[in-house]
Amino acid sequence: MRTQVGIVGAGPAGLMLSHLLHLAGIDSIIVENRSRAYCEARVRAGLMEDWVTKLLVETGVGARMQREGLAHDGIYMTFGGELRHIDFHKLIGKRVTIYGQQEVVKDLIARRLADGGEIHFDVADTSVHDFNTGKPKIRFRHQGKAQEIDCDIIAGCDGFHGVCRPSFPAGSLRGYDRIYPFGWLGILAKAKPVADELIYAYHDRGFALFSMRAPEVVRYYIQCAPDENLDDWPDEKIWDELETRLGGVKPLPRGPVLEKLVAPMRSYVAEPMQTGRLYLAGDSAHIVPPTGAKGMNLAMADVRVLARAIEAFVKSKRDDLLENYSKTCLGRVWKGQRFSWWMTQMLHRYADASDFDIKRQIAEIDYVTCSEAAMTSLAENYAGLPME
Ligand code: PHB
Predict the structure, then answer these.
(1) Phi-psi group of 333: left, alpha or beta (phi > 0 → left; psi -120 to 50 → alpha; rest → beta)
(2) Mean per-residue pLDDT, 350-376
(3) pTM of the model
(4) Omega cis (within 30) before 272
(5) What's the CA-to-centroid distance between 7 and ligand 1, angstroms?
(6) CATH homologous superfamily for 180-265+352-383?
(7) Alpha helices per DSSP H over 271-371
(8) Per-residue DSSP letter, 388
């Protein structure tokens, strides 16, 4: 096979890149080791920055999001029995949209296929080669048969555990890492929402979050041990714990739990995000703890930068944008890392926290929910820093 851009991974990054390239008249082929059904069902955070919703609409893949997504003007924070609101729209004129990541994936897959795009699902043994020569290749097996894609550029959109980042030549990449001493226990449930917008809760017993997916589908998280055993958490215990931690906003409307999970929390950045003609985008290059809801947003920012750089390369033989890809992305990535870390350390209870640490945390939450300057800073990061 032969294409201009070979893309590894059919998550939001790989699919959006393929879509943006198609709109620019550039061919790509996606390979994905999971099935289409798996990609379309994989539940992840679902909060989109203001510019991402606009990007989906402007590029013709936002119609269902506009109908079914939930536009939120701001968020709530609760601590010490108080509930406070931060109104992004009033502060900076921007909103965020709740729309499940897997819904974005479904919309993009449908659109790529309708536009004649090529996506190979269920492939095995994917590997990337010769990206430091002018003739990069992706090899994989499909239904037992060895396949090869010749391309000009490879995009590694294959997630944190993918094959592209480990394929960088020895010594050419540095990883910056932070592992947090807690995780999130999350549930998806069929129940009425307890509020009209998300609630981030700081409590003596640990962090909790109320979020939603649809008018009658709610998502809740509680801070737990990174290796928490789900067997220790029957549904009633989860609801009781949520009700305690969400403090002033009880009682919580309860309902059947559809799904339960434990997610570890980690910050990671790979530098640089490119080697030769191999470019990493999204989780393959960086992951964030979910507290700031930045994961998919950073992935979308990477591929928008990459699509423009590839277009300049293909159409005008300019390679300066490609050369600067990593540098351009990392400015935003590190600000997303900073914000995600900051939200995480402010809102979680650390086992070794001193009384001083706790008083300082409470003062920070108090400040960030009453000072207009502090709320504005949170709002512009949460709703998305400007892309240009
Ligand atoms: C979610 O809805 O899954 C969600 C929302 C906001 C976050 C994290 C997760 O900060």
Answers:
(1) alpha
(2) 97
(3) 0.97
(4) yes
(5) 27
(6) D-Amino Acid Oxidase, subunit A, domain 2 (3.30.9.10)
(7) 295-316, 320-323, 325-347, 355-368
(8) -
Q: What is the pLDDT of residues 38-67, one digit of tens each?
A: 999 887 778 999 999 999 999 999 999 999
Beta strands in 157-216 (DSSP E): 174-190, 199-201, 208-214
Residue 303's nearest CA partner among 6, 4, 13, 12 is 13
For residue range 286-297, list pLDDT tens digits in order: 999 999 999 999
- The stretch 108-129 carries a mean pLDDT of 98
Superfamily in which the 5-46+100-173+272-343 domain is placed by CATH: FAD/NAD(P)-binding domain (3.50.50.60)
Task: Tokens 């434990």: give the residue.
Answer: 262
Q: Is 274 in the pocket of ligand 1 (CB under 6 A)?
A: no
Q: Is the CB of 72 inside a 6 Å radius of any atom of ligand 1?
A: no
Determine if ligand 1 sits within 6 Å of the CB of residue 289.
no
Q: Convert the pLDDT of each residue in 272-286 to its tens digit.
A: 999 999 999 999 999
Residues 120 and 6 sit within 8 Å (Cβ to Cβ):
no
For the Cβ of 47 lying below 6 angstroms from any atom of ligand 1, the answer is: yes
The ligand 1 atom nearest the CA atom of 211: 2
Q: In what order do the strands lie in the sheet with 28-31?
A: 118-120, 28-31, 5-8, 153-156, 278-280, 274-275
Nearest CA to ligand 1 atom 7: 293
Residues with catalytic roles = 72, 200, 290, 294, 382
CA of 138 to the centre of ligand 1 (A): 34
Average pLDDT over residues 373-388: 96
**Residue ranges of domains in the chain:** 5-46+100-173+272-343, 180-265+352-383
